[in-house]
Design goal:
- By secondary structure, the chain is mostly helical.
- The protein has three domains: 2-116 and 240-302, no CATH class; 122-182, no CATH class; 338-540, Orthogonal Bundle (MetI-like fold), CATH 1.10.3720.
- It is built from 22 helices and four strands.
- The protein has helices spanning 2-20, 26-42, 61-64, 73-86, 90-109, 124-138, 140-143, 148-165, 172-175, 191-214, 235-239, 252-273, 282-302, 308-324, 338-370, 380-397, 401-412, 416-440, 444-452, 457-491, 499-508, 512-540, and strands at 47-49, 114-120, 184-188, 242-246.
- A four-stranded antiparallel β-sheet has the order 1-4-2-3.
- α2 runs parallel beside α5 and α18 packs antiparallel against α20 (457-491).
């Protein structure tokens, strides 16, 4: 419970800080309320265990509402708060809505473990996917109001086809099997079912303890209630769709609920004290706050963000620092010369970036004219070339340099050649895009003047467009070289040569005092290239 109180206090503290800064508090009430609705429906709160770890399910509060109906107070309180905010009583709405959420979520958190029965909601995820497909197409109607009706019809047809495709034997369910029945509601089980599971567990305990004894593990004791279960429930119950819900075993949705409830409560209280802290665009700002919050919370969870890992890993960091300093520049007795090797490899890295950038610039220049809308607008054939070139650049730009390097290392072997080609291929797409945008933004006056004299397309490009865009081309190329040098450092980690390969080798072998020489060299060279690149680009543009 301490963690939940801490999350609530964090939300309250943020609201107080915003109030001290004289910012609008109504937007925080609205943003927290909208985010709470998303968290209630979509973010996991507790944990429900089965027999095996793969049977574990992390239910949302909406899924748990049939088991604990008081949870429905959360959306009701939030909706009431949003209505009050709309009608000019955001202070009361935030205070009452935040308090309602805290009461409902806190009441569920202190409940004991209980047995529940799963009920998949079939068709929900399919409907959601169909809605995303239809909505994506329908967005085009805003930019083309004259074609709004046909676009909406196409959107509805596409959404319907997507929905039914998931139900065909060879449709979406065959490729995304977890999407079918993904969302599950939890329903309570009668006390006799829970007692039957306790009896079944105790009857199977002697056999289980015999196995544990052979494995050298401690014996388990008979249980009196489901809260005494350690780990999994019996296999038969799990296969029949039962799970053991443990309300206090929280997931990231619990942080969202208590933090946002504290934020809403705090913002409401500050508004009650100073009702003037609101602005006309609060609803738009509130939607943005809710969007950011609902994107960040699952992102932090998916990336396993945990500062405690730094505390656990601190001894290694200290050990690394002790072994890495002072740097070993040379060991004549052992005939080891790290500085000499670093200078050689850093030169290779610079040359990789240089050659890769040069090749990319050579091929990007003609391609960029084919990808420029103002140069290829003459005939239908040229328009087709424009769309094909843009498609080529967009597709290839979506493949990271590291992935290209991995493929090329497998194809041509270890060494800088794979790194050079990876840099050249990816930089071709980047420079092609930048060059084409520079061409499209060129002044039309000289172009129209030459065209009025009957000049050919080649002459128009040579005398009207190139003089305008060449300084930009050079500036973009220099900047791309700066980026490519940093990329080439990483490419060495996958065997594509350069200083990255040296650092990876020394790090893997524990020779930190040699590895740090390479790091220092990288810092120096990066700063030199940055300063030189900035100076050169300032002279060109």
């Amino acid at each position: 419970m301490t963690g939940m109180l801490l999350y609530t206090l964090l939300g309250l503290s943020l609201a107080v800080l915003m109030g001290v800064a004289r910012g609008s508090m109504r937007r925080w009430v609205i943003g927290a309320g909208l985010a709470l609705l998303v968290v209630f429906v979509a973010f996991p709160f507790s944990r429900a265990r089965g027999f095996l770890s793969r049977d574990t399910i992390d239910p949302t509060l909406l899924a748990l509402a049939p088991v604990f109906p008081l949870l429905l107070l959360i959306p009701l309180g939030v909706l009431a708060a949003l209505v009050l905010a709309r009608r000019g009583a955001a202070g009361w709405g935030g205070a009452l809505g935040g308090a309602a959420v805290l009461v409902a979520a806190g009441s569920w958190y202190v409940q004991p473990a209980q047995l529940v029965r799963l009920q998949p909601v079939n068709g929900l995820m399919e409907l959601l996917i169909a809605g995303v497909v239809a909505g994506s197409i329908a967005l085009l109607s805003f930019s083309r109001p004259q074609q709004r009706i046909p676009i909406l019809v196409v959107a509805a047809l596409a959404g319907g086809l997507a929905f039914f495709w998931f139900h065909t034997p060879q449709g979406g369910g065959a490729y995304l099997p977890k999407s079918l029945g993904y969302y599950k509601l939890f329903f309570p089980t009668p006390p006799e079912s829970q007692q039957a599971m306790i009896d079944s567990y105790n009857q199977a305990l002697p056999e289980l303890n015999a196995i544990r004894k052979e494995l050298g593990q401690d014996e388990l004791k008979p249980i009196q209630g489901l809260s005494d279960l350690q780990g999994a429930i019996p296999q038969q119950a799990s296969s029949e769709g039962y799970r053991l819900v443990q309300p206090a075993t929280t997931q990231y949705g619990a942080f969202g609920i208590f933090f946002l409830a504290g934020l809403m409560l705090g913002a409401g209280l500050v508004l009650l004290r100073n009702p003037a802290l609101q602005e006309p665009d609060d609803f738009r700002a509130g939607i943005l706050i809710a969007l950011v919050a609902t994107l960040l919370m699952p992102a932090f969870d998916a990336t396993e963000f945990d500062l405690n890992k730094l505390v656990v890993g601190w001894p290694f960091l200290q050990q690394f620092a002790d072994k890495a300093w002072p740097p070993l520049l040379a060991d004549v007795a052992a005939e080891r010369y790290p500085l000499q090797e670093v200078l050689s490899q850093i030169a290779v890295t610079v040359q990789m970036a240089l050659v890769g950038t040069f090749l990319a610039a050579i091929f990007a220049m003609p391609i960029s004219f084919l990808a420029a809308r103002n140069v290829t607008s003459g005939t239908p054939l040229m328009r087709s070339v424009f769309y094909l070139t843009r498609l080529f650049l967009n597709v290839l730009r979506g493949v990271p340099t590291l992935i290209i390097a991995l493929i090329l290392v497998a194809a041509v072997g270890l060494g800088p050649f794979a790194g050079v080609m990876a840099i050249a291929i990816h930089s071709l797409t980047e420079l092609g895009k930048l060059y084409s945008e520079a061409i499209e933004n060129a002044d039309k006056g000289p172009v129209e003047a030459l065209e009025s004299t009957g000049a050919s397309g080649v002459n128009v490009v040579r005398w009207a467009i190139l003089p305008q865009v060449l300084p930009l081309f050079v500036s973009y190329t220099v900047y791309n070289f700066e980026i490519n040098f940093r990329s080439s450092l990483v490419l060495g980690l996958v065997g594509a040569g350069g200083i990255g390969y040296f650092i990876n080798e020394k790090m893997a072998s524990g020779q930190y005092d040699q590895m740090i020489v390479g790091v220092i060299a990288i810092v120096i060279v990066v700063n030199i290239i940055d300063f030189a690149s900035s100076w050169l680009r300032s002279r060109l543009v």
